[in-house]
Specification:
This protein is an alpha+beta fold. It is 24% helix and 25% strand. It contains six helices and twelve strands. The strands form two sheets. A six-stranded mixed beta sheet has the order 3-4-2-1-12-11. The radius of gyration is 17 Å and the shape is globular.
Length: 263
């Protein structure tokens, strides 16, 4: 089963690019972030015509996550547990039925968190609180001892080798010590970070800013990740970044990241 996570930066603005990508790359499942559309406005029939079951958790003009699947989806839930007052659309779950077993999919768009200011800004505190809820959900998934993954735009640069210029990100919410401490706490629960399980070393990025010629200079960062439970990690065949998508017409500032699982 080939699964991709992709922050598309607006389904209406990128529908042509996303359609071309789905047609050419043909993921079995695509976890999308920043759809920037309410559920009623998402072009569901367009993607259904391409052969995908469509599940969304949308929000007008901001955020929004979706799952597109060629395989049956069951038990779809929306919203990260832990804060009933949180109205931001950043989390969607479903179970996909593979050839050998079922796999729990969790698609996420983790808050950016900037500006940090002195560490007390509302956006930064929201990011950290959201990560606490993510840690709690991760702990619950692991307790079920079933194949599961949490994937999406984490807005976390895990280490200096995951940025072309790590010095430029010092103090940023994506690379802040408090953010990284939460990331390490999440991983330490027992998840496998799929890309680093297969690829070592610097120079691997999933995001390039639209400004300052970042793509042309390969001034990127790696912030889109797959975390696998041990049962899912046992099925991992490969994980890779589809870098060339960034050089196409009207691209997102992110590119797809993939896992291939034997499920």
């Amino acid at each position: 089963m080939k699964i991709a996570t992709f922050n598309i930066n607006g389904v209406k603005a990128r529908i042509g690019a996303v359609t071309d990508w789905l047609t050419e790359s043909a993921p079995d499942v695509a976890l999308l972030q920043e759809i920037k559309s309410v559920d009623e406005g998402f072009p569901r029939e367009h993607f259904e015509d391409l052969g995908y079951q469509v599940e969304t958790h949308g929000q007008k003009g901001f955020n929004g996550v979706a799952i597109l699947s060629r395989l049956p989806l069951e038990d779809v839930t929306r919203g990260l547990p832990g804060d009933d007052a949180d109205e931001q659309a950043r989390w969607i779950e479903a179970t996909v039925i593979g050839d050998n077993t079922a796999l729990r999919l969790c698609g996420l768009y983790l808050p950016n968190g900037n500006p940090v200011e002195d560490g007390t800004s509302e956006k930064f505190r929201y990011k950290l609180a959201w990560m606490d809820r993510l840690i709690a959900r991760g702990r619950a998934l692991l307790a079920e001892e079933q194949p599961a993954l949490m994937a999406g735009d984490y807005n976390i640069i895990p280490s200096p080798i995951d940025a072309a210029r790590p010095e430029a990100w010092v103090g940023d919410a994506l690379f802040h010590p408090e953010s990284l401490a939460k990331w390490r706490e999440l991983n330490a629960l027992g998840f496998t970070e799929a890309f680093r399980a297969r690829t070592r070393g610097p120079g691997h990025y999933s995001f390039w800013d639209y400004q300052r010629g970042a793509w042309d200079r390969n001034d990127g960062i790696r912030i889109d990740h797959f975390l696998l439970t041990p049962q899912a990690a046992d099925t991992l065949r490969d994980c890779w970044i589809e870098k060339d998508v960034r050089g196409r017409e009207k691209p997102s500032d992110h590119v797809p990241v993939w896992v291939d699982l034997d499920v």
